[in-house]
Amino acid sequence: MSVALVGAVDPYPIDAGKKVVLGGAVEYFRDRLGPQDVHYMIIGAQPQPDFPVTLYPLPKVRRAAALAAVARRVPTARASLQESLLYSPEIADAIERTLERVDPDLEIYGTIRMAQYADDAHADRQLCYLDDLFSERYTAMLDAAHRYPDVVFRPLGNFAEHVPGPLRPLADMKFPQRALLRMETTLARRSEDRAALRFRRSLLVNAGEAARLTARVADRGKADVMAVPPLVAAPEYRTREYSGAPDFVFIGLLSLPHNEDGIRSFLTDVWPRVIKRMPQARLHIIGRECGAELAEVVGRLGDSVTLEGYVDDLSEMLSAAAGMINHLRFGSGIKLKVIEALARGLPVVSTTIGADGFAVGPEHGVLVADQSEQFADALCELTDPGRNHEVSEGARDQFASTFSRDAVFACYDKAFALR
User: Could you give the dihedral angle defined by the CA atoms of residues 331, 335, 341 and 343, in that order, rounded to the nearest 10 degrees?
Assistant: First the structure.
């Protein structure tokens, strides 16, 4: 058996959440099928002699082609902006030629952006890996903008490389940004529904989103939508010996809108309450691409908060921490940073939105609080070594039962029908 994956993101190096998911999929197929039967097509990729499976670089979308696709497809609601910006006949031809040569038993298209390239003639062997529901992500952003006057969005995130330079500023200007988000919500929802009904099976990382997508299209036909957890490599087992220090961590790519807003709002609304109660408390912010606004907020907090940047080995810092902060006010999918914490037995304090897709409660390693004072209470609670140990054990249990390699591979076997 052979498989072909079609995507717009190179999984390597694995230094962001999306790449963790894709890298895990490559590892799974390489393990189950062997590298010679795993074929990966990536828009704009460069040749890589050490790529773990067979790589087929696809051409980049030229600016003229992207703008033409937007003008032709968006006004007629044929496709969302993100789909149109990643469409070109040149790429379609390259994918078609590669698939003819490889002739895989299974084709997997990454999100609605790549689903548009699927040939109906081979629908019986095609799956769509939706990752998360873009429509719900944008709806949450608009809702957050209404509820929180201080919210700041940079919605392009790591998709910015696929957007022509002259268009990028529009995404950061408040009025056009909100209008574009409302339009993209509607268009992305149509494309997601279309994918659910068209593909043999559609996959999401969040079980709640899988159920909601299934319900959305129930009156139009039968859809096979399944939730599959991402594969996060478990770190080498290390016994936590937490001694009560009020040290906390935040992990995430800081250019992503939900991460930047989440940590900035935490520093403004929650952290001062923590410092008032525990003057020696320290917060380590781990992640690349910190913007000027966030750096300014951190700078006003003295030595209680440090920007660590990218940290290659998290073991020592996470082992000594009381807990991980996941203060998100909007978002979608499932947060890989939470899985990373669970794998290390690190307790998590999260908002309800940030904990979507996880079992919650001390017995599962995830404490939930949505009000600033309650969030501060939960952090202070974790500095008791006995309580911390109890929640830590719950975190390890949830990782073992749901997100360990064996658990994820068993789920993938079912999703991809390999066993």
Answer: 160
| Shared-domain flag, residues 410 and 360 | no
- CB distance 138 to 242 below 8 Å: no
Query: Are 203 and 128 a contacting pair, CB within 8 Å?
Result: yes
CATH number of the CATH domain containing 72? 3.40.50.2000
Are residues 284 and 221 part of one domain? Answer: no
Whole-angstrom distance, CA of residue 29 vs CA of residue 367: 34
Q: Which domain holds residue 197?
A: 3-231+406-415
Do residue 16 and residue 55 come from a single domain?
Answer: yes
Residue 362, C-beta contacts closer than 8 angstroms, at least 6 positions apart: 387, 390, 391, 394
- pLDDT per residue over 329-357, tens digit each? 987 778 889 999 999 999 999 999 999 88
Task: Take residue 399 and report the two structure tokens written for it.
Answer: 């990782």
**328: nearest Cα among 359, 369, 296:** 369
Residues 227, 289: one domain? no
Task: Indicate whether 240 belongs to any domain.
Answer: no
Number of domains in the chain: 2
| DSSP H or E run through 192 | helix 174-198
- State the Cα–Cα distance between residues 80 and 65, nearest whole angstrom: 15
Q: Which stretches does DSSP call E strand in 44-151? A: 54-58, 106-110, 126-131
Cβ atoms of residues 217 and 223 within 8 Å: yes
The answer to whether residues 153 and 255 touch, using CB atoms and an 8 Å cutoff, is no
Give the Å distances, CA to CA, from 155 to 101, 257, 292: 37, 6, 16
Helix (H) or strand (E) holding 122: none
What is the rounded CA–CA span in Å between residue 415 and residue 2?
A: 15
* pLDDT tens-digit series, residues 16-28: 677 888 999 999 9
Amino acid at 36: Q
Which residues are registered as beta bridge partners of 55? Answer: 40
Integer Cα distance of 197 and 191 in angstroms: 10
Looking at the fold, whether 111 and 161 belong to one and the same domain comes out as yes
Higher pLDDT, 166 or 17: 17
In this structure, are 275 and 150 located in the same domain? no
Instruction: Indicate yes or no: pTM above 0.85.
Output: no
**H or E segment at 176?**
helix 174-198
DSSP 365-385: TEEE--SHHHHHHHHHHTTSH
Structure token pair of residue 129: 């890996």
- What do you get for the CA distance between the two ends of the chain, in Å? 11
